[in-house]
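Input set for joint prediction.
Command: fold jointly, output tokens.
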Amino acid sequence: MDTQYQTEIQITLEPHYQTVIPRVFVELDNEQRSIILKDTETIAFNLVLDVGQHSLTVWFENKENSDSTTAVEIKDIKIQGLTLDRVKWAGNYRPIYPEPWATEQRQQGKMLPEVIPGGHYLGWLGTYTLDFTVPTFTWLHQIENLGWLYTD
Amino acid sequence: MPNKNIFCNVPWYQGHVYWDGTFGYCCVIHTADGHGYNVKSNTAKEWLQSHELKEFKQKLLGDEKLSPCDLCYREEDQGFISKRQNENLKSAIWPSEFDRSFNESYTRDKFLNIDPSTYKEWHLDSGNECNLACKMCNPYASSKIETMYKKWGMPTADTSKTLWMNHPNAKNFVKEICDNEQLKRVHIMGGEPLIQPNFKNILKQVSESRPDISFSFVSNSTKYDSDIARYLEKFASVDIELSLETVDSVNDYIRQGCQIENVLDVIDKWHQHKSEKFGIVIRPTPSILSVSRYVNLLQWAHDNKHIIRSVLLTDPYYLRISLLPEKYRAPIIKELTEWSNNIKVSTNEYVGTRDQHRWEASLKQECDSMITCLQQPVIPGAEKDLIAWLQRWDNEYKLNVVDYLPEFSDFFTEHGYTISN
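tokens >
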């Protein structure tokens, strides 16, 4: 078995806004892209990745507290040519809630989750992170729950 | 790089024993090529290291299609997911991205080096003892058909007299496969395993020595046995594959000797055991005789949250769906398309056989595969053989195909179907 694999990952992001165009920062390991998301856009990575754990992260960077419309939606994530819904659901969204709204909510006893598993609609500032492992086809098999794998 | 249309991991990981004890390459391939390796006289290890098995593996790494693998090729050509494709997924080899996924498979080198190490699964044929005479079956898998072949003067082997399960060495063989720490699954086929006395003995032996594995078997859905259910509960996981063609009397016409009410009742009894570790899969073999009722089968499965995994019929050739003329296909395609459109579940995923939570996606996938199958070109030419075969059986069982499939009555009469009863 090899120790590194050429890995293609494409993430498609859809903006939602009225006046403020969302700005995102996308990172796969150490490769970074900064994007003004005027229209739906697909960001492609084609990297040689070591066998093991990796992360794809999307930062939603420019939402103002007064802005109730601007958001970023992760439409799909294509890995090695395969687009499977469960991939985007495998990620975690960590919102940064606006103040003082967040404190008020907590004072009223409303829980604001630190992590939203599977959350792929970024309505607040924050990050979406997809942790995955290389080789990716094996990881895809696992998240699709396709049963056991022959690994030896 | 192996060929994406040829490569199959089955001979590396799955051992097969045919009804007479012959070691086989795959359960889809029903005959050996005269290699002579047999559980009555050889160990599994001897078979694994045999020249014949190595040669077969070598061919699967090549570019030429293998005639014994025709069933899988036909399933793929007609839009179904074949056993080959499903099994390759266990090595994380994806049909749509074959080259890249083969290269990334943990077991790539094992394939390329024709590794002769041990199997992780065994598929064991329990023989032909069966209480049904299904029109698409053969004497090697049904004692009822064996009897009829003899009555009709047709060539057949004395299958029931040479069953490996009745041989003194059967217990040693089962012990050998259970002693293998890497064993993950034992799968029993038939005949009808639930009427084969030694099935229970083998089940007991395996459940006592290897409760940590998965156990599965096929059944014709005519028998429920609470003793067997108790043994099954001991395993880490269980899958029962239940045969069913249609949910109406056409099932009785095809699977001669059964009654649909009883069949559905038996399926319901097995269904009561369903859990995270106890799976039920409905296994039809769609043919020209059942395709017009397929939408009802899908709806019944949907109502009961069953998974369907079809094995598209290819043998005998005269029962294939491809024989059905266009004018009969159009209304079936329309019905299936409407049904599929009403299932609002994402099919942007690959549904595995055993994920009981994804029954709805599996049914949509089955429906869409059947639509694709019906959109393939008509292959006429076997009408005479079809009619002859139906008449032969219908005279014997006092049935008339027109009573069961009036929607095809013109087709049958046009090609000369007549019945005296």
